[in-house]
Amino acid sequence: RLPASARPAAGSLAGSAFGAGAAMLAGAAVGSCRRSRANGSKASTAVVRRARGGAKDYYEILGVSRNANEKDIKASFRKLARQWHPDVNKEPGAQEKFQDIAKAYEVLGDAQKRQRFDQFGEEGVRGGGGPDMSQMNLDDLLGDVFSQFFSGGRGGMGGMGGMGGQQQQQRRNPRGPQKGSDLQCDVDIPFETACFGGEVPVNVRREEPCGDCSGKGMKAGQENKTCRQCNGQGVVMQVMQTPIGVMQTQQVCPTCQGACIDPSALCGGCRGKGTKPEVKKVSVKVPAGCASGNQLRVRGEGDKGSKGGPSGDLYIAVKAADSKEFTREGFDIYTESEISAWDAMLGTQVVVNTIDGNAEIKVPVGTQPETRMRIRNRGVPKLGKQGQRGDHYVTVKVVVPRTLTAKQAELVRELKASNEKVVFAS
């Protein structure tokens, strides 16, 4: 027989964490004790050595001494759980480390299991089969108090005996007003509209209030018919007794899928959403100076909110069209203008077409090919800067005649002969 101090509590061998493995170890421990009695006073030493020789030392895992009290064990578990939980620690091996920490606290946090571990080692507490806490998030595992611990909230761990206590999270009421989603679409803007602004019609497929239920999501006369399974809460509670305390979790109600409404009362047209998809034409105001890559925001033209909620916004990704005549770079416009070689030598006046009409420029005497001339403030209006515009640049293309008449050729030769003292610009 084992000494009274070493025997497990009555009934603990049947259906407890002690299990069959613990029973086998108990037999080994008895044999060890019997052999030790032949040597006198070494009985307890043999048992302690067996316990310490187990595969894992839970005291070492939690970083506490063997005479640590319950408060020290809890404090160490809190610290290690914060450090190694897979929700916050993505290092390789973090999940296995946390499983060891959770198992160690499961054993050392329970007086009876701790006593069996002290007597028989790891084999004495095998078979408990607690939940795989590494797969639970921190809110499920430790409740909102521990969640506040991570976000800098007050209150510390509170009652660790309950491991989470009551859920304090404020959930959005699925039956209340819901804001519509924001939408985004790409829109081609004509060149002139992008330069000077204007309005562009855009067809948008979005959620619109359901006409069958006026956006309420429920059949007429059944607005107050709530789900019977969750009593209109949208969630159902589950309470589990775990080795580390009572754990309370919330799950979406499987009957109403979180809508809080009895399925039989839902509007058939929108299935309880309060909105249905429709295509609507929206007039988008384009400010002057828009360019490709700009994004416009049209407030309230996204999905309509359900059950009286506000609408989302519509975001327009601008794609400004190119022009066949003008080249735009930022707020500046570039064009080309051809003049004859005679005009380049003698100078002339040239009419240039700009984005807002014709403009006349003076070509000075001796203008060279590819000369770039600027017309100030005839470019694109600058976005968000009223009264300011870019410039219009004209590149002069000098056209040399390919053929000459006999008279023209003679005149050119005379000009060349008399041109010995003329200094040409380089």
Q: Main sheet?
A: 4 strands, mixed
Q: Provide a count of the helices.
A: 10
Helix proportion of residues, in percent?
A: 25-40%
Strand order of the largest sheet: 8-9-13-12
The beta-strand count equals 13
Shape label = elongated
Q: H/E element string? A: HHHHHHHEHEEEEEEEEHEEEEH
Q: Output the radius of gyration.
A: 42 Å
Task: Explain what this protein looks like in three dimensions.
This protein has a 4-stranded mixed sheet with strand order 8-9-13-12. Strands 1-7-6 form a 3-stranded mixed sheet. A two-stranded antiparallel sheet has the order 2-5. The longest helix has 20 residues. The protein is elongated. The chain is built from 10 helices and 13 strands. The N terminus is likely disordered. A hairpin with a 2-residue loop joins β8 and β9. It starts with 18 loop residues before the first helix and ends in a 9-residue tail after the last helix. By secondary structure, it is α+β, with helices and mostly antiparallel strands.
Entry summary:
This protein has 426 residues and is of the alpha+beta class.
Question: Which features characterize this protein?
Answer:
disordered N terminus, 27% helix, four-stranded mixed beta sheet, single chain, 10 helices, alpha+beta, 426 residues
